[in-house]
Design brief:
Elements: E1 7-18, H1 24-50, H2 54-66, H3 69-94, H4 102-119, H5 125-154, H6 158-180, H7 210-229, H8 231-241, H9 243-248, H10 253-280, H11 291-301, H12 306-329, H13 334-356, E2 357-368
Length: about 375
Amino acid sequence: MERYNNKKSSQIALHLTKRDSIATWKAWVIRLIAVLMALIVCAVVIVGITGENPLNVYSGIVDGAVGSRRRIWVTVRETVVLLLIGVGLMPAFKMRFWNLGAEGQILMGGAAAAALMIYQGSLPNVLLIILILIASACAGIIWGFLPAFFKAHFNTNESLFTLMLNYVAMQIITFLIVFWENPSGSNSVGIINSANKGGWFPKIFGSDYTLNIIIVAVITIVMSVYMKYTKHGYEVAVVGESHNTANYAGINVQKVVIRTMVISAGICGIAGAVIVSGASHTISTSTAGGRGFTAIIVAWMANLNPLGMLLVSAFLVFMQQGAIQIASQYGLNENASDIITGIIIFFLIGCEFFIKYKVKVKKNEEDAA
């Protein structure tokens, strides 16, 4: 007869459980910890690349972002543009419509602005700017209506549809540059209306970018009210939760999908006008500059909250402008600044896991023969 000794062995196990909710301050503490960890990792990378004291490099980042009046305004300008695109993506994402086509919508809005500046540059500037904003919104709407229509009626994949339209928009811009090339042979449009500044946003309170801020602030406030307090905003939330629930409640899902995406794309189109008429005064395939994809990170990290989007946008732009400065200051190429920015974004995205999930350490005892 064989005998068995029963022994108990303990094992440590990690259990992941989804949070029902988390206090806002706790979520921001987690994000702050992620930022601090990112800065530590960046410090190691900086020492490895430059051999410099990381504190000196971080001082250079601050200087690059807010070291002069001009740099402060550039940081503010880039922040509000990124915020505007994030606000544009907000209603689509709230509806669970994955709009990855903000880049294309920005380019088409920018193309509409450039066209009016080139062909109607002699109009009174106030009238021209109004027309630019309307035309840019319409151009973005067209670029957003296409995937929305096919999603609503044929259930196509909106992610692929909107993503592919980005490349179509880039080809259209390349085509337009051939006609608008200035000077001839430069393969670029150059600064549009540099003499009469037709279509340029005017200076307000001594700054070139005050109108940019006003436009973004107005749109952000209007969209916040629209999403939170209107019937349409409620319908967007219901459709995002469940199409079946929306149908049961008598909501026309197809109509809501098209309407919401039109609003989303129209705002991204206006962002194109803000970039072209309010900042660069030219158009190229790099006008969007990856902002459409960065704004996706901004929208999700802020949990589609406009105030949170402002904070995230400001931080990302601050680090991007600072990283560009230290790359120049220490003789590094632009990839070095991209590495630093990428590390920070990696930690910020990763920390969202710990905001949505709890990690519990449990000691399990098992019978061992």
